[in-house]
């Protein structure tokens, strides 16, 4: 029989829990999750939910009360990082007649996601611990056309002397066991506020269109499928798909290299243009 109860409260054992969403109001409770500051930023998972024991409700309320001001700093850092990549793409377009970046995505973790991650890290959910222990509150994902573009952009990022590269994880050269491939970096970027400059961390992911295609569908299968995709057969098929895409990427990169090695023609005059760089 379907449950027609519209309440978000659920009785568990031995304690009562509450299910909340990033913008949902809990009926009967004197609080709601504070929405993010108005922006075009998309949440990490729009359908993300968090279960909280009633005895932890006060702790969560205290944590979420002042989070908007903190998240505003991370959103500023995210925007700064996005602009850095847009400038690089424009500069490469003017000097080398090509745009390595296909598109850029960005996100800020939701308060529910941040709270949950601090709990999983064994840290008390406070705003101080958020800033001290979480490096991926803000995220920027750069989607490139070719593998060489990923390497090139990471190299250009390293040359910007006002950035601090905290760590890099290269899942392209060393893919995860399930076939996931991408380049991850934690980068601290300077953000200037009214009375201070702060180095705010941003998680940067740089990957190709093919890598993003695989990762997006793997994520979709994992969170929306009712079957167990961790089974050996399913996992093996996902890994095989990743290897197929990697082979295809290599072939497309070879074609791009051939074209890049040939002199370019000026579109207006039809004359061969000098090769830059």
* H/I helix tally: 7
Whole-angstrom Rg: 23 Å
Kindly name the structural category. alpha+beta
Secondary structure tally: strands: 11
What fraction of residues sit in β-strands?
15-25%
- End-to-end Cα distance: 68 Å
Helix content: 40-55%
Largest sheet: 6 strands, mixed
Element-by-element helix/strand order: EEEEHHEHHEHEEEHHEE
The CATH superfamily name of the domain at 37-209 is: Beta Polymerase, domain 2
CATH class value of the domain at 37-209: Alpha Beta
Side-by-side strand order of the widest sheet: 3-5-6-9-8-7
- CATH fold type of the domain at 37-209: Beta Polymerase, domain 2
CATH architecture of the domain at 37-209: 2-Layer Sandwich
Low-confidence stretches: 1-47
Can you give the mean pLDDT? 79
Shape, per Cα inertia axes: flat
